[in-house]
Design goal:
alpha+beta, 13 helices, binds magnesium ion, binds 2-acetamido-2-deoxy-1-O-phosphono-alpha-D-glucopyranose, binds adenosine-5'-diphosphate
């Protein structure tokens, strides 16, 4: 995959100093292609993150990168004012030599970020403290976005978390059955279709104004926050492609769907996939620690619902992609998206069983 790109030439188009050393695949994202770029400046080796942006999905990369520039410039300023280290606590865009925040080689778009070293993006919660810290970081990030002038932002993926539209896309995928897989996934299809009313539950509250639309991150899984290897504290929130109008109920929910499962998102053995109410409590504690004072009552009352919704939505997205022939989420094995859909549906049924307990935990920490 990496041999496809001339990294030496690509890196020479960015404001990175020194000599090219190497550029290797890095991380576990499903959307962009991420590489660790190594440059040598004198005796010093300097690391960068280089990404090939998925321009099939993000059709206007210049505007996408303008969003990221605006948000990261704002975040850096706030971090500096608070006496922090902007190069470490925020993503930092390294511009191309032509001054753009990206480089286009005639076919592909690339971007470069400062590498945030001595930190880890965890694929599962290995230490509950990390999960608590990620909650505080995402809560603080929501507070940061609340201070940002939303009118400056472009909406890169309209209807991204419109679960009603996601449900319709699944129905379409079942109808088209492009690669003949529907007959083998009847149980999963039935599970998804049986919950049609669920798909409208938050969308309708956003439409009525009961839940306020805010600028949110929209992809708040644990591997989109970096945890400091030395202190176990969250260092920076990353993966800012999906910043756009949304609800914190979804941001909260996406963290829960990913982190409250001791197994991987693509675990094949469903007996290992269980919803952890103890981790849920950890996250609620951290999120409300950061957000009490700004979160509305309606938002707080819909956090647990947001968790079920995001898990269900992600499950139907994975299932639809499996039926469509795996055209959206990058896969590493046959049936990968089906395995992912199954873990999500297992978590949905677990959460349905302890929904009252989830709401009681939110009430315990909500200071409204
Ligand atoms: P995707 O949109 O494909 O998920 P991400 O931007 O989340 O891509 O990057 C993928 C992974 O690369 C992250 O989970 C993290 O491990 C790593 N990563 C991304 N940006 C940085 C950075 N600035 N410093 C260190 N690691 C990073
Ligand atoms: C994708 O880019 P990444 O891997 O952080 C996806 C999210 C899904 C997630 C499932 C832009 O996130 O919406 O919840 O996979 N991002 C996009 O793991 O579609
Ligand atoms: Mg990511």
């Amino acid at each position: 995959m990496s041999a496809l790109y001339d990294f030496k030439k690509i890196s020479s188009n960015f404001n990175v100093g020194g000599e090219f050393v190497s550029c290797e695949p890095y991380g576990e994202g499903h959307i962009n292609q991420t590489f660790l770029l190594l440059m040598k400046e004198g005796e010093r080796e300097v690391k960068y993150i280089l990404q090939r942006i998925n321009s099939t999905l993000f059709t206007d990369v210049p505007r996408l990168m303008q969003n990221i520039k605006l948000v990261t410039d704002f975040a850096r300023e706030q971090i500096a004012l608070a006496g922090g280290n902007p190069d470490r606590e925020s993503l930092t865009v390294i511009s191309a030599k032509d001054g753009n925040a990206y480089y286009f080689d005639g076919e592909n778009y690339f971007r470069v970020y400062i590498f945030i070293d001595d930190s880890t993006a965890y694929q599962v919660v290995e230490n509950p403290k990390h999960f608590y810290e990620s909650a505080v970081a995402f809560g603080n990030f929501a507070n940061l976005l609340a201070k940002f002038d939303a009118s400056k932002l472009y909406e890169p993926l309209p209807n991204f978390h419109n679960t009603v539209k996601r449900f319709e896309a699944l129905e379409q995928a079942i109808k088209e059955d492009k690669v003949g897989r529907a007959k083998d996934v009847k149980a999963e299809i039935e599970f998804a279709l049986a919950r049609k009313e669920l798909s409208a539950k938050i969308v309708s509250k956003l439409e009525s104004g009961e839940i306020p639309l805010k600028v949110t991150h929209n992809d708040t899984k644990l591997n989109n926050v970096l945890i400091d290897n030395a202190t176990d504290k969250a260092v920076a929130v990353i993966d800012l492609d999906t910043i756009m109008p949304g609800t914190i109920c979804y941001d909260f929910g996406d963290s829960i769907r990913f982190g409250c499962n001791p197994a991987a998102e693509d675990e094949k053995d469903l007996s290992k996939v269980n919803f952890s109410i103890a981790l849920f409590e950890e996250y609620v504690k951290g999120y409300l620690f950061a957000l009490n004072g700004t979160i509305t009552k309606a938002e707080a009352q819909n956090l647990a619902l947001g968790a079920i919704m995001m898990t269900y939505e992600c499950g139907i997205r994975f299932l639809a992609d499996h039926l469509n022939g795996d055209t959206y989420f990058r896969i590493k094995r046959e049936g990968h998206n089906l395995d992912r859909a199954r873990t999500q549906f297992k978590l949905v049924s677990d959460m349905e069983k302890c929904f009252d307990e989830m709401n009681a935990i939110v009430n315990k920490y909500y200071a409204g």
